[in-house]
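Tutorial, part two.
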Amino acid sequence: MTFSSLGLTGELQRAVALQKFDAPYPIQSQAIPAILQGRDLLAIARSGSGKTASFALPLLQLTQSIETGKRRTLKALILVPTRELAAQIGEVVRQLGQQLTPRVKTAAVFGGVAINPQMIDLHGAELLIATPGRLLDLVAKSSVRLSAVALLVLDEADKLLEHGFQDELGSILALLPKKRQNLLFSATFGEEVRQLARTLLHDPLEIVIKEEIAAPERIEQQIYLVDQPRKGPLLRYLIKNNEWRQLLVFTASQRRADNVVKKLLSNGISAATFHGGMSQGGRTATLAAFKTGALRVLVATDLAARGIDIDSLPHVVNYELPRSPADFIHRIGRTGRAESTGVAITLLSPEETAHFKVIEKLMGRRLERIATTALDLAEY
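Running the prediction step on this input gives:
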């Protein structure tokens, strides 16, 4: 199948070609035609499955064609849980919309930065990517009106619900017109997402992209058995002995991330945290340094890491396991992207073994363990 068979305009097909998209991913081949036909959509697909383009492309096409009677009226709204994801989707939409004539004016708004520049940027916006709290702030300041929104996307709906955006979502939905097209994307399909889908969607097309590791032949997994107190020394040993130059480390909490970074820095390894406790300016600068290679190690929590998209990232480390098995797959999917190879390392303590077996069941395979008791980590 090709993008030319999905009903996209010639302009968007040229944009796709410029981005070097060879063929549509499964989520794209199923979602794009349905969205263009005006259907509501429920899509269960992990990060890295190509889902952003699956809604960005048809939204650009539909937004361009919607007549509201007023020029430059907000027609499409994409709600996301994190600042990084909002910025990332905003960039994808901008790139895909470059060939359109006339252009669809887009904007991305999120908290943690000054609101006044966003108020200016919103003027005339037709497609908006937003985090819920900042959107409501802008509504309260009369900087944006939602009364003409014809297309609503909830991206990473499970994370929107998991991190306390239920009240904000309710307030936003109450401001939208009742007649609209709704698209719901989620990595998991728990009871809260099911309930939201039942209330939000009308006769939706359901798409389920089976949870699996993308191209497992390109992602080598290494599982190191290690007691909890030896995790830090083992991480530093692996970095130094293998001369790893760029790696993303996941922890379960902000406090742990800060402690890991402190120890890395004291051992001469350039590192920084990346989590919700930082300012937006700090997060943006840190991520930029990591992408360019100026920073060797980025230590992140799961929520902050949503929206981190780095081509050819060679190493991902699970310092601690996530609570959700699906999040484990999201984590290791940060490497082995865009046809590149990658290595995913897990530091597995005895207390985590039972939970890891659940993760292995989801992946459909048991992974070989590497013993570390014989390693002398005293100098690390």
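The chain has a mean pLDDT of 89. In part three we will examine how such features are distributed along the chain.
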